[in-house]
Design goal:
mainly alpha
Length: about 180
């Protein structure tokens, strides 16, 4: 409420009344200049609250605070935005973090967006990148198998059986993947 009303003095007064809230209020006032992990989730909760309440101006105001945290905050903000159906904005936050910071959920969300835009080659490349990083979510594996079966790319076709073997080693009991592989062969 204080941020929406631009009444920072009220926040300062609140800090004096409730000294145990000092650090959280300093975070809100953007007076914390370095990453402190214990405020990471509190900050994300503030951002989520603004989305739930459709207070997008306050959301943007709070984004100034993200510089107090490490670059991984962009991934978490991306997840939050994606969850609330702001996919394009989420992808922008993922891009700000860079691929080397992606977690499995970032890959899954980006792949889903590529597929919505009929960009199957890009989805395949991201799925392979995720697998190479050690992420093995079923959707990633499924994406690789589907694209391998659909593509006419000679390099991929030459590696098709190694890809399928790798997939079957990850999920040996999956009849769904076995059927996808038969279909892709």
């Amino acid at each position: 409420m204080c941020l929406k009303k631009h009444d920072l003095k009220l926040l300062e007064d609140f800090k004096n009344i409730y000294p145990q809230s000092d650090k959280i209020i300093n975070l809100m006032l953007n007076k914390i200049s370095e990453f402190d992990e214990k405020y990471f989730n509190i900050y994300l909760s503030f951002l989520e609250r603004t989305l739930v309440l459709s207070e997008f101006d306050v959301f943007e105001e709070l984004l100034d605070i993200k510089k107090s945290f490490n670059v991984d905050i962009n991934i978490k903000i991306g997840h939050l935005l994606y969850h609330y159906q702001f996919a394009d904005l989420a992808v922008q936050f993922y891009q700000q973090a860079g691929n080397k910071h992606f977690d499995e959920q970032a890959y899954l969300n980006i792949i889903k967006e590529f597929k919505k835009q009929n960009m199957s080659r890009e989805a395949f490349n991201f799925a392979l990148e995720a697998l190479n990083k050690g992420f093995t979510h079923f959707t990633l594996v499924e994406e690789v198998v589907e694209f391998t079966g659909e593509t006419k790319d000679k390099a991929i076709q030459q590696q098709k059986y190694e890809i399928f073997k790798f997939v079957l080693n990850l999920f040996p009991d999956s009849s769904e993947l076995q059927n996808l592989i038969i279909k892709a062969s």
